[in-house]
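Per-residue structure
===
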Amino acid sequence: MLRPLGSHAARRAVAVAAAMVLSFASACKKSAPANVAATVNNQAITYTELEDAYRQSQLASTEKDANEEQVMAQKLQVLQTLIDNEVMRQRAEKTGLLAGDADVETNLNQLKAPYTKEQFDDQLRKNNMTLDGLKAQIRTRLSIDRLINKDITSHITITDADIAAFYNANKGSFNVAEPRVHLAQILVTPAPDPNVRNLKNSKAQTDSEARRKIEEILSALKEHPDDFAKLAQAYSEDPASTPNGGDLGFIPESALDKASPELRRAVNGLQPGGISPVIHAQEGYRIIKVISRDTPGQRKLDDPSVQQSIREMLRNRKLQLLQSAYYEVARDDAKIVNYLARKVLETANKTGK
């Protein structure tokens, strides 16, 4: 049972509550700084930065068909990403993990490598981006990667007992019912779809551009076949497989039978490690790599590929959980003021909409 407050304690509680109300009211009445959409520990995120990020985002691709409320909701979503990035950037800076100029230049040169200066400048223009803006994005991304690696990834441990427990609980999923092939792909599409992009921001706009691009990738693979995963991450336009270096996982042979005859013939003609010629598909053009082939039967726990697949799955699952929690804690530790969100609410209260 709660004890009633004594007279002194009651007066103190009322005074504290009153002070909080007055403080909140004062904060609400305080006008937002000019051109500031939000602040993170008094560091401003300007409306100019927000508009630039919005134009560069895939959300903006639907702007023509979106009404005013939808556009504002999209901008609030983009602003939240900018806030999160700034929270993590500051955290990286505080712990001495901010990426240096040399790191930024190295990454920038990797992005520039496939292009002439004119082509690279044209890519910047197409993506509504300046060189300084791109460098700032690279610095933030590298810094956040360092921070996550130091505070989360490096502390994740998957034990042999963890692997065994998962295997025993999911043994049936390691029973291969039919022959299957472990494939990876690089997909290039010709349609000028703003929702389809690649890491290099070098989207082909016509069929001839897509064909030329995939042929250039194949030429690079002939010289450096071990670069398949790296090239897939940079140029492939399949959102499901690109982050994993084009890895499609194991495909049952029966599924290949339902695919195009050209794809089936290409796969049948390749040994593990082999790379196909360019394959014309309904989506565009693709290059296929056969990583390995699997025969039917129960896979045992002592199979290195079984252990590796379980280890990676458990690590990724734990990383996703811990990273989500880490972002929440980082936000709680930061002083964040979202002026745009306040403005949206104030406008709605005034108009009744």
